[in-house]
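protien #1 (seq + structre)
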Amino acid sequence: MPGRKRKPEALGKLEGKMGRPRPPEPRFEGEPVPPGWLTEDGTDERHKKFLAACRQKWEEMLDILHRVPGLSQQPDGEALARYAAEAVRHAELMRFRARTDAVVSDGEGGWEPNPFERQLAQASERMLVLEREFGFTPQSRTRLAVSPGGNTKAKKEDAMFGGDDIPMYGATAVQ
């Protein structure tokens, strides 16, 4: 459906702009779980190093997401793992780019852009999309307003509309 994307309820409450009341979002019990491919051992030494770096990045990002209560839930594990893999791949491409030139010989006496430049640009675009989803960009963070006492507007809405204790069909309410 055209229009703006729906914002996760936790982000809307932090921004203090929930708009008109809507049914509460489903809450899933438990922490995000890394997908199976992230917990594998790897087939060769390079693959093992890549997976180890992805697991480390996954843990770092999970720690960051835990700073905003209710933002990360059990089904977010796969998206977080994709972000971790993209971040590791992006770092590898940046290290390679630092050792190479922006243009390379085309084999016919001319010059062409280094193919890794395109891969780096594509990886950057994919990371930016995921960073926006998780609130990891400066622009997405400017819409968040966290005060020491919590969001009073969200507290008033919780009092008026019953808060988060009403589970959606097929979901479990988490306190």
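ok now protien #2
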Amino acid sequence: MVMNTGDIGYSNNKGKVYASRDILYSVISLAVNEVKGVASIMTARKTVAKKPGDGVKVNFLNNGVEIVVYVKVHYNVSVPEIASRIQESIKNGIASMLDVKVKKIDVNVVGVEFLGVNGGAQLAGAKGN
């Protein structure tokens, strides 16, 4: 069950449990960053996310949550494959830590990170030397 305040709440045989929405954002961010091929979580404005809630949108419904994440991936990864792995990682992370039903997970790939000749990162569209 999700509370109107954005806190996540559920009952078990010992009582009620509530968790703040920040915990959900942290679980999502950790799950995304565990996926090989993800360069970083990005904001919708295509800047690098600085804290767990950045680059993650959660729509709290009465019977679960809908999640939107924005990511930059490494060059030479399959976008459909990595998106599927991100969805699975988020779903598993939430299932293992919180009793929340995930209704939908949208993954938006907003950039590609290339490794330069000297090992430095270059953004897609950046001109080389």
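The first strand starts at residue 8 and ends at 12.
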